[in-house]
Amino acid sequence: MVQSPRGPVYRPVLAARRGELEALSHLDGASTPLLAPVLDVAADAPSIKDSLARLPDGLLPAVDVSALPDTPEHDPVRWGVPLAPVIGLTDSDRRLAAHGAAARAWAHHAVVRLRTGPDRSGPDAATAAAERVWRLTGLMPEQCDLLLDAEDVCCTADVRLAEPRVRRAAEWARRHAWRSVTVAAGGMPPALTRLPVDEPVRLDRYDWSLWQRLADLDLGYGDYGVSCAVRGADEPVDRVPTLRWATDDAWWVYRWSRRGGRGDERFADLCRTVTAAAHWPAAGAGFSWGDHEIVRRARRGAGAGSPANWIAWSTSHHLAQVLAALVRPERDQRGRAWWADPDVPERGRTGRSPRGGESRRAG
Question: Are β-strands 13-15 and 62-64 bridged in parallel, bridged antiparallel, or unpaired?
Answer without folding.
Answer: unpaired
